[in-house]
Fold this sequence. Notes:
The chain has six helices and 18 strands. By secondary structure, the protein is an alpha+beta fold. The longest helix is centred in the middle third of the chain and has 12 residues, at 134-145. The protein is globular. The termini are far apart. The model is unreliable at 1-43 and 84-90 (pLDDT under 50).
Amino acid sequence: MAAVALLRGAAPGRGGLAWRWRLRTVPRHRLAHGSSRHGGDAEGGAAWACFPLGERALVRVRGPESAPFLLGLLTNELPLPGPADGAASTPASAGYAHFLNVQGRTLYDVILYRVPERPDQTPAFLLECDSSVLGALQKHLALHKIRRKVTVERCPELRVWALLPLSPEEAGRTALLRGQESAAILTPDPRTACMGWRLLAQDEGPALVPGGRLGDLQDYHWHRYRQGVPEGVHDLPPGVALPLESNLAFMNGVSFTKGCYIGQELTARTYHMGVIRKRLFPIQLLGPLPVGGIAPGTTVLTESGQAAGKYRAGQGDVGLALLQSEKIKGPLHIRTAGSGRVALTVSVPDWWPTTTK
């Protein structure tokens, strides 16, 4: 069947257009005007920038007990099957969650995809994770599998793509797939609407998406850091990061009504106390940077020299820092070698709940 496969857009409450298209204000990083080697720009008919995320990998969890198995390990509910709309199988859906250790600290951040299934098939899920911890995640799942009827295996045949709109006009529209790509999964990024769509496919992303062109991976990370979205072990160090300080609740990644899971006690207690003094904030570094960049864990200081938090990770002049919320409005800086200093500014993303601004 030659019809275009259409998946639903972002639901109300996931950010809508309120996040704005900030990249248009920064010519060096504007996705809307990529170089010719990437296949043209928005004026040439391109509507979506397709970024191959080689640092992301997939683990498949399938079997009749896969759902209760994952529920006991993840911070969030499992994504519900989408409405079948009369089709033979249900469409894909996605959710965001963390695996925690027993102390309640993040081990792995994952985007969880519910694989389209027919009524006669057993449930199956794909876990998108940082490729550097693929083996560790598999061991973590195997450790807790015990006698459950679950199969855990790598899924090297599918590649992970991020799709971002090239203009504000496209931001509120749905992404499309050419034809009936049964092997492809396309769904809105569950973390926030400003992160566009996620595509899992065997083929090249731009070939599957009408109006798609290959994007520069640096632009994807620049956009992600500007929006304050952590991803992978550099932004969320295993055994170090705390989920609520990492804005897991803002990214739809935790349920406070689901059943028990590993690491739940500290997370639930922190939430019900209602006090989160530190958060991961997007920052921009001002002025010349050291040749090797800013080292992760470098202390961020106030004008008077008091510690305000620590630099976490970044790319170029943008990044994330774990900062005390009460100190983000004053002048901040980082000391560098040779008694130098780099000033920085902190922003609060538009898509965050207004109560935090």
